[in-house]
Amino acid sequence: MRKVMSAAAAFATAATAMVVMSGTAQAGDDTVYGCRSGNVCIWAQGVEPFDDPHPTVQYSSYGYHNLRNQYGDHWVLNNQYGGATASLCYNYGGTNCYETLFQDDWTYENLTPVNSITLNRP
Q1: Measuring CA to CA, which residue among 79, 75, 119, 70 is closest to residue 97?
Q2: Are the beta carbons of 71 and 64 closer than 8 angstroms?
Q3: Fold of 6-120
Q4: Mean per-residue pLDDT for 76-103?
Q5: Rounded Cα–Cα distance for residues 101 and 122 (Å)
Q6: What is the pLDDT of residues 45-62, one digit of tens each?
Q7: What would the pLDDT profile of 65-74 be if each residue is shown by its tens digit?
Q8: Are 117 and 59 in contact (CB under 8 A)?
Q9: Computed over its alpha carbons, how large is the radius of gyration of the chain?
């Protein structure tokens, strides 16, 4: 089930304002708040990426990745390219997935029931 949240809209607005004000965005720099291009990133519980641009986890290889010690609400970004998606899954091993993040998608998600994330080839 896809979540549409006003927090995501507020985050996007704040993120755009930060880039405009700082003037640091450069062509070809696809790192987003510390999340390297091609990765799926998770920030610490309750952390706003624009306040602390240091994701606690970055996944870069296709397939499933079992989560460890990820409880409560976290920002998750699919910063992959070429149309690759990422899925949040209730079970270990990348099964029983319930949400798909398309390229450049963000979600603010309670990761307590989430046990794995998959990086899916386009």
Answers
A1: 119
A2: no
A3: Gamma-B Crystallin; domain 1 (2.60.20)
A4: 98
A5: 12
A6: 999 999 999 999 999 999
A7: 999 999 999 9
A8: yes
A9: 14
Angstrom distance (rounded) from CA 113 to CA 57: 17
Chain-centroid distance, C-alpha 15: 14
Residue 17 has pLDDT above 80, yes or no: no
CB 86 within 8 A of CB 47: no
Q: What is the pTM of this model?
A: 0.77
- pLDDT at res. 29: 62
| pLDDT on residue 16 | 41
- CB-based contacts of 30, cutoff 8 Å, min separation 6: 36, 37, 79, 81
CA-nearest of 108, 43, 28, 30 to 73 is: 108
| Cβ count within 10 A of residue 90 | 12
Dihedral, CA atoms, 25, 46, 44, 35, nearest 10 degrees? -20
CA pair distance 54, 41, nearest whole angstrom = 9
In whole angstroms, what is the distance from residue 80 CA to residue 101 CA?
10
